[in-house]
Amino acid sequence: MKISISVLVLFSFFIKVQSQELPLQLDSETYSFPLNTESSIIKEELLSHIQFLASDKLEGRKTGQPGNLVARNYIYSYLETLHLDVTLQPFSFERKNKKIEASNIITVIEGTELPKNYMVITAHYDHVGIGKTVKNDSIYNGADDNASGVAALLVLAKYFQKNKPKNSLIFIALDAEEMGLQGAKYFVENRGDKNMVLNINMDMISRNENNEIYICGTRYTPSLKKYFSNIPENTFPITFTLGHDGLDGKDSWVKQSDHYYFYKNTIPFLYFGVEDHPDYHKPSDTFENIQPDFYFEVVQFIANTIADLDSKIK
Ligand SMILES: [Zn+2]
C-alpha cells in the first residue's frame, strides 16, 4: 500500500513536470524596441479610460449588475470607434443556485504575415460591485483591479490597429473573473482550432509603492525566460521581476487570474500584475489611488513587449 502510493505520487509528479513546458519559438531572444513612438500610447487617453471604468457610476462592475453593462457598452463602443469588428460572446453559469448571464467582448486585428497565429491579449472588466461599507463607502470601484488592465487593452487595440501586427491579435475584455475566471474558461474552451501561440493577461497593473511589476509564466516557457532575462538593467524606469510562478518561494499566481485557463489548455502565457496592496478588494481601490506615471510606464512596456514578440514569434 505504502509503495503504491509513493509510486502514484511519483507518477503524478512526472506527469506534472511533463505537462509543464509550454514552448514558444522566437527568432531571437534579445529584447528590442519596435514601439513606434510617433503614434504611440497616449497617457491622457489611458487615464481617461481607467477613470471612467472606475467611477462610482459603474457601481463596481459586478457581473449581472447594471454597472457591468455600462462598462461593457463603453468597451464595445470604444472599440467600434477604432473601426474594429467587435463581437459579444455571451455565456452563463451557475453560482449559488442562480443562473448568471455574462459576456466577453472580443475583437481581432488580423496579422499581415502570419494571420493564422493568434496572440491573445486579455483583461477582465468585471469587479465585485457593491459590498460591505468601509469608511462610509460601499462601492468597490476596482480601479487597479481591473479597470487598469481594461484601459490598457483599449489603448493597445488602438495602437495595433494603426501599427498592424504580423501575427493576428485577439483582444478580449473578459467577464466574470471575480466569480471564478468564468469568461476565460468559456473563451478558451470554445476557441475551436485556432492556433493560439501566447496569452498576455493584464490584471492589476497601475500601482506599486516600489514601482515593481511581476511577469508570471516564464517558468513554463524557456524562450520567454531568456528573452526577459536579457534586458539590461535600468532600461525601463520601472522594475519588472519574473516570478510568482511557484519557483521563487512567493505565492504562485498561476491560478490567480484569467491566464490560468490558457495555461490549463497548454497555451503559453505571460501575466502582468502587481503585488496585492492595502486597497485590494476594498472600496478604496479608486482612480485617486493609482500611480499614473508608473501605470503609463507599465503599459508602454507591455505595448513594446507585444510589438517585439510579434516580430519574433515564428
Ligand atoms: Zn482582478
SSE arrangement:
Blueprint: H1 2-20, H2 43-53, H3 66-81, E1 86-95, E2 98-109, E3 114-124, E4 130-134, E5 137-139, H4 143-162, E6 167-174, H5 182-189, E7 195-202, E8 212-216, H6 222-229, E9 239-242, H7 259-264, E10 269-273, H8 292-312
Parallel strand pairs: 3-6, 3-7, 7-10, 8-9
Antiparallel strand pairs: 1-2, 2-6, 4-5, 8-10
Helix pairs in contact: 2-4, 4-8
The site of zinc ion has 7 residues, from helix 4.
Structure in words:
The chain is an alpha/beta fold and 314 residues long. It has one domain (22-312): 3-Layer(aba) Sandwich (Aminopeptidase), CATH 3.40.630.10. It has eight helices and ten strands. The protein has helices at 2-20, 43-53, 66-81, 143-162, 182-189, 222-229, 259-264, 292-312; strands at residues 86-95, 98-109, 114-124, 130-134, 137-139, 167-174, 195-202, 212-216, 239-242, 269-273. It has an eight-stranded mixed sheet, sandwiched between helices. It has a two-stranded antiparallel sheet with strand order 4-5. α2 (43-53) crosses α4 and α4 crosses α8 (292-312). The longest helix is centred in the C-terminal third of the chain and has 21 residues, at 292-312.
Strand percentage, roughly? 15-25%
Number of strands: 10
CATH architecture: 3-Layer(aba) Sandwich
CATH class: Alpha Beta
Helix content: 25-40%
Assigned CATH superfamily = Zn peptidases
What would you say about this model in short?
The protein is α/β, with parallel strands linked by helices and 314 residues long.
Summary tags:
23% strand; binds zinc ion; 314 residues; alpha/beta; 35% helix; 10 strands; two-stranded antiparallel sheet; 8-stranded mixed beta sheet; Aminopeptidase
